[in-house]
Amino acid sequence: MRRREFITLAGGTAIWPLAARAQQAGPVRRIGVLMGYGESDAAARSELAAFRGALAKLGWTEGSNLRIELRWSAADPDKIKALAKELVDLRPDAILSQTTPVTGVLIHETQTIPIVIVGVADPIGSGIASSLARPGGNVTGLAHFEPAQGGKWVELLKEIAPSTERVALLFNPATTVPIQFFITSIQAAASSAAIKASVAPVHGKDEIEGVIAAQARRPGGGLLAIPDAFNAVNRDLIIALAARYGVPAIYFDRRFAESGGLISYGSDFAAELGQAALYIDRILKGAKPADLPIQTPTKYEMIINLKTVQALGITVPPMMLGRADDVIE
Hints:
Helices cover 37% and strands 19% of the residues. By secondary structure, it is an alpha/beta fold. The two termini are 13 Å apart.
């Protein structure tokens, strides 16, 4: 079950239309979509379907009054650059940008085409927007993370695996949210829980095993997968290695828990993409991105995978199970 949701847009815009709106009249509009994940990612395809479905409910029908130019970057920095330029050269009416690295490249390619962001952290610190209330420039949308989440990941990992004494922060510097965004809350929570937190940057999937194996060399090792398109693309490998080495791990997205990860804590990517359709709709109707506030999540979901709990020999506190938004058996 999912009890978490995003807030409404400022100014009273409804989270969801009560009924499908009449189909838009006029010429065919074109939007670009640059996904941070790979086309083979079933969860990403499902999230994209939520975006398309939301657009349809708003009256935008592909093949009738809307054309979508879709590109998948698979968290490849070189591919992101090439595809961003390709989309901008098409001069679409708006672009949906998924993840911080994708958005960073797109804003260097265009300062005029409206960009709607999803899966992005720290839009101000990353130079994407001047403020949340009035972003300025050509970018608006939904920020997916907040700094305090870092501390919450540490707290939840300690709660579900009380023997945790060390935690490695897994990320790829080329594709991640800036680690500084979370590090203060991570360090504070780690200190309070008597956990030693250490950064573990990797630059390719062949380096992941070394990080996880190091945590398993003695008791008390744990893993925190920092929000990162690289981690998302390689989630099956990360989950499999954590299971092989018996390392408890916490993740930023429910897709990890659904794929066999121990526990995840974060906001709902599919719901976020559905919300992004509202921004696209308003922009296609003439709204300026500079005037549309960037939403931040206020509710989060905790997902626990009981099969992985049992494989690790963990006993989850009953109160923690009761707080979970979803328990996968």
